[in-house]
Amino acid sequence: MIDFGFDKLALIGAVALIVIGPERLPKVARTVGHLLGKAQRYVADVKAEVNRSIELEELKKMKTEFEDAARNMEQTVSQEVNAVSGEFDKAWSEATSAAGGSSSPGVGWEAPPPQYKHPGKNWRVKRGAVPQWYRQRHGVRTRVQSGAARVARFRPPRVSSKAGP
């Protein structure tokens, strides 16, 4: 960049003072400062965009490398699984042919698979965590009543005032 010393800056300031004048010099200096700030921000934005694009390219390269490695691993695993399943089928066919020539197991010795039995509980119903016997023993209310119902329940019975003959 251009190297400005103190003497060069003083010379530029003196020329600007003479050419522009003392009344307009602060306004022009402020405008030049704003323009330089905008230029610096624009250069910083361009640098950041270039850095982002470089990082994006690097990430794309890494992504393709990982995808290739994953595909290679998947192919290797599937080849190994196919080889092992082929060996197993071969061993199974040899074992069944040596056992009796039939590839299906004997009829009488295998139990049928167990049938599913529903537990009979409704799991969606919210249940309390405190057992019912604990509530009864310690006086926890299990049924909710309104205030009027509670008063009517515990009100002593009415005694009729009519005396019968």
UniProtKB/TrEMBL annotation:
Subunit (UniProt): The Tat system comprises two distinct complexes: a TatABC complex, containing multiple copies of TatA, TatB and TatC subunits, and a separate TatA complex, containing only TatA subunits. Substrates initially bind to the TatABC complex, which probably triggers association of the separate TatA complex to form the active translocon.
A single cellular component GO annotation: TAT protein transport complex
Listed PANTHER family: SEC-INDEPENDENT PROTEIN TRANSLOCASE PROTEIN TATA, CHLOROPLASTIC (PTHR33162:SF1)
NCBIfam families: tatB (TIGR01410)
GO BP field: protein transport by the Tat complex
Membrane topology: Single-pass membrane protein
One Pfam family hit: TatA_B_E
UniProt source species: Caldimonas caldifontis
Major site of localization recorded for this protein: membrane
Keywords for this protein: Cell inner membrane, Cell membrane, Membrane, Protein transport, Translocation, Transmembrane, Transmembrane helix, Transport
Subcellular location as annotated: Cell membrane; Membrane
Feature: compositional bias, Low complexity: 94-108
Molecular function GO labels: protein transmembrane transporter activity
Similarity remark: Belongs to the TatB family.
Region Disordered, annotated ranges: 94-122, 139-165
Name of the gene this protein is made from: tatB
Protein name per Swiss-Prot or TrEMBL: Sec-independent protein translocase protein TatB
InterPro entries named in the record: TatA/B/E, TatB
Function text: Part of the twin-arginine translocation (Tat) system that transports large folded proteins containing a characteristic twin-arginine motif in their signal peptide across membranes. Together with TatC, TatB is part of a receptor directly interacting with Tat signal peptides. TatB may form an oligomeric binding site that transiently accommodates folded Tat precursor proteins before their translocation.
